[in-house]
């Protein structure tokens, strides 16, 4: 078990926080094995390990090892931290406390990489790009412990040096030791004061909240574009650095919340049929194992529920989820389709993700859904008359091919691939991976998917566009572009269906996420047209954007 998980949360902004840490070493002989005094040169008031190098931690404790391996997989293999870490926790057999420590270490170091790199750049005598990446990851992990966690300095340094020795080799451990001592010479407040001295507001926020400057700028613009105050920027960026609560959804007609609430979940205050997990291993819940209760962000639940809430469902309606993988929203839609007599076609371009959709839908009666593995840009209105078999074969229809003259889908959800800037708190490394160049590619794809969806709509049909990004280019600009190129499409109010999908009053007042559509030249919008933008710092959800359109063209 790790030695330091008594209180591993929260940044240390002041030296007062460290007094307890120093007590640990009070009275110790601060000389190394060769009698040299430690911590001289401006660090006289600091204490590091009292033990000689030969007695110090030689190996890596399991929590740090899990975190370090996660950082390595993210850096070296482009892996996703939130997928690697649970695997490492399992493989190393960490208990609950060590798993929590490993999570804080790994996610914290990944999220705050930008700030930690700025600190480290001041503590090494060469560009960080010239440091071996495996050593740099150890330094980031050590820096996170020193500046963001209440771990005594000597433990943070000793453990990181031990980890370096066991995972990389004895050579770099001296460098790691020396650099981390320099890092420990200042606390976080002092480092931030140094780093931001003379910086403009965006750079200062970038360093204080550890976001790339371009994302800080984009978030500031997004707040304004979606009718919120730019003064909320600090809160929004801070929310990206907080662990999201785990929301559960009971699939309508299939799952029940009561057993989960009896086991410690709290009923959601935002969405009906939802709860916030009380922690612990969710796979212990039979309903979660069977897929009748699912983990799903409350914002995503509102997206799917707004598709259903937009108008009363007529039996026989044909629904399409154009970008369905891995199947979270499709599961909610399919369950609603099963209850109302509608049918959902869940489409996904990536074969392995289409398999995940099938798994997600398996619990729903299969008369209500089918899966198509294909490019959403190639879907047509005719696909509304075909019902691919839920085993994956797309062989026309069990019943649909008999049906005459399909006119298209009655409801289509385009939950488009996007930058994910609204879900940064879930993917700790993604803010450092994403670049403005991604936007150019994604916005083209988003518009192509929307246009295919518009073509596949039945007359009077509903098209719902959603992204887990509030970026203007992926939200309001995408809406403008679609309306300009599809005169038959009208933007309608998304506010009312989203509020209807939420618990009564949950989205009132300052929490109302709907804003009237400003309208671009040539855009066709209803008088009450409004788009919806949810926010982590206001609603506790991912920053989901939702727009509703109606097909007004007469059937050809
Ligand atoms: C934001 S995710 C959808 C999340 C999903 N709706 C859910 O709730 O679980 C976007 C999905 O679109 C898929 N995608 C990307 N390009 C596509 C295309 N051309 N056609 C269909 N799906 C596509 C991606 O593979 C990804 O699974």
Automatic annotation (TrEMBL):
Biological process annotations from GO: regulation of DNA-templated transcription; RNA methylation
Pfam families: Methyltr_RsmB-F, NusB
InterPro entries: MeTrfase_RsmB-F_NOP2_cat, MeTrfase_RsmB-F_NOP2_dom, NusB-like_sf, NusB_RsmB_TIM44, RCMT, RsmB/NOL1/NOP2-like_CS, SAM-dependent_MTases_sf
Record field: compositional bias (Polar residues): 47-57
Record-level Gene Ontology MF annotations: RNA binding; RNA methyltransferase activity
SUPFAM superfamilies: NusB-like (SSF48013), S-adenosyl-L-methionine-dependent methyltransferases (SSF53335)
Name of the protein in its database record: rRNA small subunit methyltransferase B
Organism: Kocuria coralli
